[in-house]
Every structure is written in C-alpha cells, then in structure tokens.
Design goal:
Helix content: over 70%
Largest sheet: none
Number of strands: 0
Shape: elongated
Number of helices: 3
Structural class: mainly alpha
Distance between the termini: 46 Å
C-alpha cells in the first residue's frame, strides 16, 4: 500500500517535470513552429517555378526544410539527454531502495526512496534553464524570445 502511495507521488512529481520542461521550452518551440516554419514555407513556395524540373523543385524544398529539421533534432537530442540523466538518477534511487529493503535496520526505505527521487527530480528541473539557454544560443535566438 505504501509503495502505491509513493508511486503516485513520484508520478505527480514527474508530471511536474513535464510541465516545467514544456513551459521553459515554449519559447524555443514557438521559434521553431512559427519563425523557422514560416521561413521554410516561404522558401518552399519560391521553389515552385515552372522553369524548374520536378527534381530541382524537390531538392529546393528539401534544402528549405534543413533549418527546421536541424532545430527539431537539436531540441529532441537535448531533451533525450535530459531524460536519460533523470532516468539514471532515479535508477540509483531505486537501487538504493532495493538494497535498503534487504536490510532489517532500514525501516524507512520507502521514505528514503521518495526523498532521493524528489531530490533527483528537483536537481534535473534546475538544469532546464541552462538547457534552454544552450538551445536558444544554438538556434540564434535573442534572449527576449
């Protein structure tokens, strides 16, 4: 029963991480979805010229999509690393919990798991501004965006 309560608390805490990540990344996502996508569509529109051959048009449109694709890949890569670090930290907490359960002198194993997980999650959330800053720099965004 206590395991379920802790699981539910951790699930809520992880939802907070998702909300924080979405909130902090919203400016970057807006830049990709609007600024870069708009530039892509304008560029692609200009590719459609009756004087061009079909493969030239295709190559032109593909060329126009490169900045958007690179930006999306950059964000996905950064967020994958973020999730990987968080999962490793939570795995360490879980391993400590499993070890503590085997020791009769550790009656507070669940509360220690929860405390460890909360600390790992909080530490991960603290890295989000730096990640967003790196993304903005890589994407050439000014700090007001």
């Amino acid at each position: 029963m206590e395991d379920q309560i802790v699981s539910e608390r951790l699930r809520r805490k992880l939802n907070e991480v998702n909300t924080a990540a979405q909130s902090q990344l919203s400016g970057v996502q807006d830049h990709i979805n609007f600024t870069l996508q708009q530039a892509y569509f304008k560029c692609a529109y200009d590719c459609f010229d009756r004087r061009r051959k079909t493969d030239e048009i295709s190559n032109c449109v593909e060329h126009c999509s490169v900045p958007v694709m690179q930006s999306q890949n950059l964000v996905q890569g950064e967020m994958a690393k973020f999730q990987e670090r968080l999962q490793r930290a939570l795995a360490v907490c879980h391993d400590r919990y499993e070890s503590a359960k085997l020791e009769p002198s550790q009656p507070n194993a669940i509360s220690e798991l929860e405390s460890c997980a909360n600390l790992a999650i909080d530490d991960s959330v603290k890295t989000l501004p730096a990640i967003v800053g790196r993304l903005k720099t890589s994407l050439g965004m000014n700090n007001s965006a």
